[in-house]
């Protein structure tokens, strides 16, 4: 199974300041079709998860442009350019290059 | 508007069974793979199972293989999860999600509690 490891596990951030979350996979996520099936999800308190980013860097419909994804192979990053209060929650990375699909442990974003 | 609505959760005794349903609307259900993901209380996300759009192929996590069965009825726009031989480790909120390579829409979840 592909293990997804996120850092940090907790991230206190000041409103208006940037935030960054990293995710590393135990093996390359490049699929045989050439795509990299890596995504980021956000889970606000008491809510179901919500897709933010798919295939490394593509923002899903309705996701603000302050969220951006980057990376390749085994190392990926989610950046929030200016954190807003509504960004509080837990962020998960996920790989869908192979079965079983696996998630990172989650990174809790909180406001200082 | 895409909507996914889970139902069927509840309290079940260890060793018991439960069937979850996920009613889909707002998109052509038969064109999309569908998945189940669960979240134990206070824990992270765990993928459980995926079924292709036509229903012919299914995939399972080792933790549920042989006990859970995913299925779908495209005529009813509904996804199912039959859960047998339930144990305490199966206590979780169960979400249905649309997609194969990314899960772009999620339901609100249904809580399954396994306890005597």
What does this structure look like?
The complex is a heterodimer of chains A (112) and B (116). Helix content of chain A is 0%, strand content 48%. In chain A, the strands form two sheets. In chain A, strands 2, 4, 5, 6, 9, 10 and 11 form a seven-stranded mixed beta sheet that branches. In chain A, strands 1-3-8-7 form a four-stranded antiparallel beta sheet, with no helix packed on it. Chain A has 112 residues and is mostly beta strands. Chain B has 116 residues and is mostly beta strands. Chain B is 0% helix and 50% strand. Chain B has no helices and eleven strands. The A-B interface holds A 35, 37, 39, 41, 43, 48-51, 54-55, 60, 90, 92, 94, 96, 99-106 and B 35, 37, 44-47, 50, 59, 61-62, 95, 97, 100-109.
Layout of secondary structure:
The complex is a heterodimer of chains A (about 110) and B (about 120).
Chain A (H helix, E strand, L loop, with lengths): L3 E4 L2 E4 L5 E7 L12 E6 L6 E5 L3 E2 L7 E6 L2 E6 L8 E7 L6 E2 L3 E5 L1
Parallel strand pairs in A: 2-11
Antiparallel strand pairs in A: 1-3, 3-8, 4-5, 4-9, 5-6, 7-8, 9-10, 9-11
Chain B lengths: L2 E5 L2 E3 L5 E8 L8 E6 L5 E7 L6 E3 L7 E6 L4 E6 L8 E7 L6 E2 L3 E5 L2
Q: Please name the two chains that share the biggest interface, counting residues whose Cβ lies under 8 Å from a Cβ on the partner chain.
A: A-B, 24 and 22 residues
Helix content class of chain B: under 10%
Task: Summarize the biggest pleated sheet of chain A.
Answer: 7 strands, mixed
Low-confidence stretches of chain A: none
Strand portion of chain A: over 45%
Radius of gyration of chain B: 13 Å
Write down the oligomeric state.
heterodimer
Distance between the termini of chain A: 36 Å
Give, in order, the helices and strands of chain B: EEEEEEEEEEE
Helices of chain A, by number, come to: 0
Cα-to-Cα separation, first versus last residue of chain B: 40 Å
Helix-strand category of chain B: mainly beta
Number of helices of chain B: 0
Number of strands of chain B: 11
């Amino acid at each position: 199974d592909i293990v997804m490891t996120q850092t940090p596990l907790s991230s206190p951030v000041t409103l208006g300041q940037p935030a960054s979350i990293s995710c590393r996979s135990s093996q390359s996520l490049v699929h045989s079709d050439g795509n990299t099936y890596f995504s980021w999800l956000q889970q606000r308190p008491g809510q179901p998860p919500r897709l933010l980013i798919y295939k490394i860097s593509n923002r899903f419909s309705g996701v603000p442009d302050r969220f951006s994804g980057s990376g390749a192979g085994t190392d990926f990053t989610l950046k929030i350019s200016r954190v807003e209060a509504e960004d509080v929650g837990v962020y998960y990375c996920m790989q869908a290059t192979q079965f079983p699909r696996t998630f990172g442990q989650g990174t809790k974003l909180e406001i200082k | 508007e895409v909507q996914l609505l889970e139902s069927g959760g509840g309290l079940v005794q260890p060793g018991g069974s439960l069937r979850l349903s996920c009613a889909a609307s707002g998109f052509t259900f038969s064109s999309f793979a569908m998945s189940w993901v669960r979240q134990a209380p206070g824990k992270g996300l765990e993928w459980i199972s995926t079924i292709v759009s036509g229903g012919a192929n299914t995939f399972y996590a080792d933790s549920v293989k042989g006990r859970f069965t995913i299925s779908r009825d495209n005529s009813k726009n509904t996804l199912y999860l039959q859960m047998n031989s339930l144990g305490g480790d199966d206590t979780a909120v169960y979400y249905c999600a649309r997609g194969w390579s990314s899960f772009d829409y999620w339901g609100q979840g249904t809580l399954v509690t396994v306890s005597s």
